[in-house]
Amino acid sequence: MVSSFPPVRAAAAALLAAMLIALAPGPVSAHGDLQVVASAPARGERVAAAPTDVVIQFSEDILTEGAEITIVDGSGHDWAAGATVVPARDTVTVSVEAGMPAAEYEIRWRVVSPDGDPVGDSFRFTVSDVESIAVAAEDTTRQGPPAVDVPAADVPAAEVPAEEISADRIPAGQIPSERIQSEQELIWRTVLFGAAGTVLAAALALVLVVRRRARGPDNGATSKEGL
Questions:
Q1: H or E stretch including 212?
Q2: DSSP letter, residue 2
Q3: How far is CA 181 from CA 63, 168, 190, in A?
């Protein structure tokens, strides 16, 4: 006789697994869908004057309890005045303390999603000092564009025609030394050539005189022998 115990045990195990699956908790509702769709001031905005209140609108409804907005400066001071209000199901707002100076501020918000879980985030905005910006722009306009220095090498020199440049118009102290040296060499060459010509002429005259004297006695002896 075949025992039916194993099939019964298998059926019980399958039933237990089905019950565990049925009783297991479903997926937790995600809060990533809750986003800021609009705000005043906007994220990263630079405003000319301090706002009187901060308003944030979300992509879905929120609970009226637990909403909070803080406006913190660099020193950690909270400029939010009074309690955070939920005027609509998807909007929160808070008033701003008077006298907010020009600086960068961080808006930190925290709300409760429809399923009861808290959600929060932050963004920054800047209050600009409009008067100081206008004064700086006016000073820049008065000063005008910066001066540009032109190197002396870039300025072309005045051209003088070559025919107008002569030794007569150049002072003696400004005549180039190369020109003076060439003129001196020309004078010395002329003197040397003249002296050499004189010496050569004297030498030729001396040769002729010597030849004539050498021929004189020979001519006399020849005439005596003929007599």
A1: helix 177-226
A2: -
A3: 108, 18, 14
